[in-house]
Fold each of these.
Amino acid sequence: MKEIPKYSNCFVCGDNNKHGLQAKFFYDGENAITEIVAGKEMEGYQGIYHGGIISALLDEIMIKAVLAIDKFVVTAEMTVRYILPVRTGEKIRFTGTIRKTNGKIYYTQGEAMNEKQEVVAKATGKYIEVEESFRKELMNSIE
C-alpha cells in the first residue's frame, strides 16, 4: 500500500497540526484506508465520539480515494448515515472508494467499521475536479 499525499496542516491528515486528527491515509489500488482510535478529546457526549469528526473522516477518506489517482477535487455534496455510536477508545477503520465517474464528477462511497466488523457509519459523496489554475494552487498544499 502507498501513502496518499497530504497537507501537513490539514485538520484531518496533517501531521503538523497539533489540534488535528493526524490520520495517515493509504491506497491499496482500489480503496483509500485509514484507522484511528476515537480519542476522548473529540467527544460529543461523554464516552461517545463526535459525529462531526466521523463526518470529517468520511469526507477525507472519500476525497483521498480520488486524490490517490492524482485527481484534485473538492466536495460538492455528501450524505452521511450514522448507524452505531462510536465509543471513545474504539479503533475505527475507514475505507473510501470511487463508485463511478462522469467527466469531472466523481461519485464515491465511504464506510467506517469498528473492531467487531460492525459498520458504524456510511457516506456517499460527489466531488468535482478543479480547474487547472485552482489545481496549481491546491498542489502548493500537497507534500
Note: Residues 51-67 form the longest helix (17 residues).
Amino acid sequence: MVKVIASSLRKGNVVEQDGNLHIILTAENVHPGKGNSITNVNMRRMSDGVKVVGRWRTVEMVEKADVDEREYDYLYSDAEGHHFMEPVSFEQITVTDDVIGEQKAYLTDGMKVYLKTFEGNAVAMELPQKVTAEIVETEPVVKGQTASSSYKPAVLNNGLKVMVPPHIGVGTRIVILTEDNSYVERAKD
C-alpha cells in the first residue's frame, strides 16, 4: 500500500478504507466557491460487492493498493464469465460480469483491452478509446441530405443504440467512442 493525495484518485484505482479494499467506479473533484475542495468517489467493496460512497478533502492522504495493469486479448464469453489471454505468457484469466458491466457489448474476438488485476483477480477493464461497429438498423437515407446538426437513432451489430448523421445508412461501418457511445466518423476500412 502507498499513500496518495485524494485528488489523484481515478476510476479503476484500488483503495483501502476501514480495513477493506475498494475499487473506484467514479471519482470527481469538487471545488465549491467557499470552503475546502473535496473528492467524491463511488466505489465497490471487493469482499462483498457492496457499492459505497467515499468523500475526502482533496489534500487528504488515502491508502492506494498496487494494481497490476496489463494488456490482454479478449477470447470469448460463456456461463463462467469473459475469458482473456495475456499475449506474452499466454496466461488466461476469467472476468465476471460485475467487473465488466455494460462494457461487454463492445467486446469482440481478439480485441485488446487493459485489465487491472489485484492479487490475481481482475478488478477493472479499460476498453480502447474508439471501436468500429456496423449499423444494422436505422431510418432510410434521404437523397441529397448531408451531414447536419440533426442526428437520427441507429442500432449497431453489438446491440448498442447511437445517434448518427442523416446520411449514414444500414450496413455502414462507423467509429464510436466507448466512453459515451457517440458517433465519431465513418470507418476507413
Note: The radius of gyration is 20 Å.
Amino acid sequence: MKNIVFDIGNVLIAWDPHAAFRAAFPDDATIDQFFAEISFYDWNLEQDRGRSRPEAVAAIHAKWPEHAPLLDQFFDRFPDTIHQKITGSWQVLDDLKTAGHRIFGLTNWGAETWPQAKQVHPELNTIFEDVVVSGHEKLIKPDQRIYEVLTGRNNLQPDACLFIDDSPKNVEGAQIAGWQALHFTGPDELRNSLKELGLL
C-alpha cells in the first residue's frame, strides 16, 4: 500500500477563472487582457497563500480602484469556475482506493473559497483521509514545508508518498521533499503511469 496524494485544481476539478468574468466582458480574449493588466494569477495566488478577501480587494483598489468591485465579486462567482469534474481522474482515484491505497489531498486553494468547492463537489468532504489546503496553512506549493505539513500531520514517511500534480514546479517540490511524484497531463496517462509503478 502507498499513500497517494492528489492535487485538486486541474487534476480532479477543472478550474476556469474566465467563467467568473464572462458576464462583464465580451469574450475570453478580452478577459485574458484584463488578467494580464492586473496580474490576476499572481493576485489569486496570494489568496492561496492565505490572504483574506478584504485584503485581496484592498490590494486591487490600491492600484486599480475601478476594478475593485469586479474582483470582489470574483469570490461570490468562484463556484462558476469549478463546475467541471475531470471524470477520468476521479475514476483513477476510486480505483486506487479500492486497491487499498490511502488517499490524501494537497492543494493550493484559498481558505475562503475552499468551502465553496466542498459545496459544489461534496465528495471533497469524504474522499480524502486528510487534505492540506494552502490557504489554511499560509504556505503554498512548491514550498517544501507544505509537503511536511501533510506527512507530519498523518505520521507518513515522505518516501512512502506519491504526489500527483499538474504543475511541474509542484512535482519538483514534492521530489525535493523526498516524495515520489507524477506530473499530471491527463487521466489516461496517469492511469498508465500508475500501472507501470504497479499501483493499479
Note: The domain at 3-14+84-196 is CATH 3.40.50.1000 (Rossmann fold).
Amino acid sequence: MTAARYQRIVLKLSGEALSGKQGYGIEPSVIQSIASQVKEIVELSVEVAVVVGGGNIWRGKVGSEMGMDRASADYMGMLATVMNSLALQDSLEAIGIPTRVQTSIEMRQVAEPYIRRKAIRHLEKKRVVIFAAGTGNPYFSTDTTAALRAAEIEADVILMAKNNVDGVYSDDPMVNKQARKYEQLSYMDLLNEGLGVMDSTASSLCMDNNIPLVVFSITEEGNIKKVVQGQPIGTTIRGK
C-alpha cells in the first residue's frame, strides 16, 4: 500500500458533483461512490475535512437574478449545503466512517456549531469533519469556505473534485477541443488569466497562506486516493 503524501486535507466538492448525470438533487450512487473513496483515504490515516457546495439544490446567484435580496438568496444556498452535508454524513457512517457535520449557522438539532479547536480534535481522532453552511456570511462562496477552513485547521492541501473536467484548461474543453490542460500553475496565473477554477477571494486566501490546490476529476473511481498518494493527475496550483 502506497503511503499518503498528505496528512490532513480539505476535500472540496461542488453540489453538482453529488447530482450525477441528472444535474440536480442528490444521486444516491454518486454520493455512495464519494463516500467509499473517502473511506479509502481514511484507511491511509489521512485526516479528512470536507466542504460541500449547494448548487445541486439552490444557487444564491440565481436567486438574486430572479429579483431576490442577495443576502437572503445566499442564506438559502447555505441551507442547501447543510442538506448535502447531512446526506454525505449518512453515506459515510453507513460504511463505518465516524463523521461530524459542523455548521457556520447554528442548528444544534442536526449538527454541531463550527468550533475550530473541536474540529481539529475530531480530525486527530480520525473522524471525517464536514463543514456546512459556508462561512456563515452572504457574498462568500464555498470555494472561499474551503480556503478559509484549510487555513484555520492547517491543512496540507485542498483537493478540488470536479465532475465534468479532469483539471484546469486554457479554455472550456467541452467547447474548444484545442484547449490545453495545465499540469502546474501558480495562483497568480489563475488571477491574471481569469481561469475560473475558484473565485478571486478564495485564490488570494490560498496564495497568501501558501495552501496548494489540486484540481481533478471525481467521476473516475479511486481518484481521491491517487491524488492523496501524490500521483500526477489533474492540475496542481501553488505559490505566486
Note: The two ends are 34 Å apart (CA to CA).
